[in-house]
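Sharing a chain and its predicted structure for anyone who wants a worked example. Both blocks are below, sequence first, C-alpha cells second.
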Amino acid sequence: MDLHCLGRLPFRAIFLALLWPLVSHAGQAAGTAQAHIQVLASSCAACHGTNGNSLGSMPVLAGLDAGYFIKQMMAFQSGERASTVMHHHAKGLTQEEIGLLAEHFSRQSRRPALKPPSR
C-alpha cells in the first residue's frame, strides 16, 4: 500500500477518518445502554407507575435523589431492608444497572398522583 498520498491530505481529515469507527461505536453503545435502562425502568412501572410516578400506595421513584435510590436498592439486595418483592428485583440488577436506574429516575419529573373522581 502506497502511503505517500496521505502526505497530501490534511491532518484533520486523516485524524477524523481514523476516529470515525470509534465514535460511531461509542454512540451505538450509548444508545444500547439507554434502551436497556428504558426496558428496566418499564418493568418498575408495573408497580411504581410510568416514569416512576406511582398512582397507588407504592413509593414514587420520580425525582428521587440518586444516592438515596442506590442506598435503598443495596439494602434490598443485602436483605437489610425487608420487602415482599423488591429483594428479588434488586438481586437481579448489577451495580451499574442500579446506578443507571438511579440517574434515570432522578431526572424524571414528580407529578401529583391522580385521584379517582368522587361520586
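Comments welcome. The domain at 37-106 is CATH 1.10.760.10 (Cytochrome Bc1 Complex; Chain D, domain 2).
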